[in-house]
């Protein structure tokens, strides 16, 4: 039974992080693909939640399900209600005293019957790793998302120390390290500490590469090998398309930003992740709007592209993506006025409409 639940959780993880199995070519299919993926993830989540209610999931599995649910709700741009449940499962306030030597870290595990036998140490490490992932999720998807960025950085820096403490010669946690560095990079970006942000993005990339090199040497099925490949490609595309590119946009390096975005789009062309593709597509439109002269042909084309992204986000009920597009559409029209463009009545009405839609 436990193996069955692990298989379902792995499938859910692949769907959320890889979007495996979706062919995405063209604008309409991108939106439809994202909607289909959401339905599949909702189905898997509901099935596992029912198993949890019936007491059939272990603590490690419950933590993983809650963490994945919080991650998916954040990706969808909806209010992440899962954060309350995850916060109730792990005590973030005591993280500062956490270490392998501290009783808080494992006192309840020593007496647990589920951690006896030859695989006890493996089960213990799996649970500790999942607890660390839960802390990272709370720090990034809750605290960072709600303006507590400095507090999130403190938690994530502590998580880096803990990840290294459960490091073993046989299994270096490259995936956990990559994720933590990526979260830290985004937090430092929000604080406009660009050098620190870029340094952590680089370390995230390096750990993704090391993980892929390790996993590719193992004997895997074709499906497992593809999952590992897509996971690595999607991670690098996120770093390029939504991480480093945004650093460049913030610093006015628009041509470099567009170069990074096109690189990310090329990587994602053969993978799933319709939601990530749409986000990067909106970043490309945003960059081109700021790069080209107001109301030039290229500017108009980018503006229409941003309108498409807004409609796509709205159809997916992604409030964060919708708001980003509306803010850029409004800002670009105000920018055009600043540069001496006279708006006709229809354009003035359009500007007011976009400004009123921003919530």
Task: Explain what you see.
With 359 residues, the protein is mostly helical. 76% of the residues lie in helices and 0% in strands. It is built from 15 helices and no strands. 41% of the residues are buried. The model is unreliable at 20-30 and 103-118 (pLDDT under 50).
What best-fitting shape do the alpha-carbon axes yield?
globular
Strand-pairing-aware structural class: mainly alpha
Low-confidence stretches: 20-30, 103-118
**What percent of residues adopt helix (DSSP H or I)?**
over 70%
Number of helices: 15
Radius of gyration: 22 Å
What string, H for helix and E for strand, traces the elements in order? HHHHHHHHHHHHHHH
Strand content: under 5%
Largest sheet: none
Record field, number of beta strands: 0
List its salient traits:
359 residues; mainly alpha
Task: Give a concise summary.
The protein is mostly helical.
Which secondary structure elements does this structure contain, and how are they paired or packed?
Blueprint: H1 2-18, H2 27-53, H3 59-75, H4 82-89, H5 103-110, H6 120-143, H7 149-165, H8 174-190, H9 194-216, H10 222-250, H11 254-268, H12 274-291, H13 297-315, H14 319-338, H15 345-357
Helix pairs in contact: 1-2, 1-3, 2-12, 3-4, 3-6, 6-7, 6-8, 7-8, 8-9, 8-10, 9-10, 10-11, 10-12, 11-12, 12-13, 12-14, 13-14, 14-15
